Amino acid sequence: MQIYWTKINKIIEETPEIKTYLLDCPGGFTWEEGAHTHFALKGFNAGDKPNRSLIRHMSISTLPYENSIGITTRIREQCSEFKAILRNLEVGNEVALFKTHSNVPLKREGKNVYLLSSGVGLATLRPLVLDYFERADNVNQIHSLNIDSSQNFLFTNIFESAPDKKFTSQFVDNRKDYYEEVKSLAADKDGLFYVVGSDEFLVQNIEILREQGIRPEQIMLDKHERQLPEFLSFDLSI
């Protein structure tokens, strides 16, 4: 396993609770849209075994052409040891990346694509939208729907409806409106639905999509292949 040590080159305060850490791109480090990585803090491999409290599974919120690896995360006042250390890191501090992989690349099958996310889950989807803007081949159109009760919506400069690009973006701040909109979007029985958020959020969205007749193979989750049956294999008659 290759560990890439790199430095923070910029810290962006996206909202009062959300920061993006932009990292230098180490030589040989590659990724594609929808990628996640293991993001580790100094000391994680100092002992005989890795210190798992210093490692987190994080989405990469940028694309390679932006020349920085973006890690966007929410850090609340009351937070874990990992987030507390991260909050105090500065430009120039070192972090490590390893085991980078994409579970949710943009599928180009000539269909409508729906991006369903909660809060900072939008960070996973940002690169898919940028990739689509760069090359719209075999994607009919994209509609993004994000729920964030804080109303501090992320990446509004990118998640902005652009009819000329066949891209629409919608932000809501309550569950009722959000799930009504999901039902409405699921009227497209041939669409592809990407869902990013907490496990509870995934389950609720999948239940609604399945009830509306959307098949498991139309639902994309940022989960390892072996985990997909836990979320997508349930009996609708129960």
Query: With helices defined by DSSP (H or I, 4 residues minimum), what is the helix count?
Result: 5
Q: What's the rounded overall pLDDT mean?
A: 94
CATH class of the largest domain: Alpha Beta
**How many independent structural domains?**
2
User: Outline, from the CA principal axes?
Assistant: globular
Measured distance between first and last alpha carbons = 43 Å
Q: Into which percentage range does the β-strand content fall?
A: 25-35%
Q: Within the largest sheet, what's the order of strands?
A: 4-3-6-1-2-5
* Largest sheet composition: 6 strands, antiparallel
Structural class: alpha/beta
The secondary-structure element order is: EEEEEHEEHEEHEHEH
Number of strands: 11
Residue share in helix: 10-25%
What fold name goes in the CATH topology slot of the largest domain? Rossmann fold
CATH superfamily of the largest domain: Nucleotide-binding domain of ferredoxin-NADP reductase (FNR) module
- CATH architecture assignment of the largest domain: 3-Layer(aba) Sandwich
Please provide a brief summary of the model.
This protein is of the alpha/beta class and 238 residues long. It is built from 5 helices and 11 strands; from the N terminus they run E-E-E-E-E-H-E-E-H-E-E-H-E-H-E-H. A 6-stranded antiparallel β-sheet has the order 4-3-6-1-2-5.
Protein architecture, described:
With 238 residues, this protein is of the alpha/beta class. The protein has two domains: 99 residues, Translation factors (Elongation Factor Tu (Ef-tu), domain 3, Beta Barrel), CATH 2.40.30.10; 122 residues, 3-Layer(aba) Sandwich (Rossmann fold). It contains five helices and eleven strands; from the N terminus they run βββββαββαββαβαβα. Strands 4-3-6-1-2-5 form a six-stranded antiparallel beta sheet. Strand 10, helix 4 and strand 11 form a beta-alpha-beta unit.
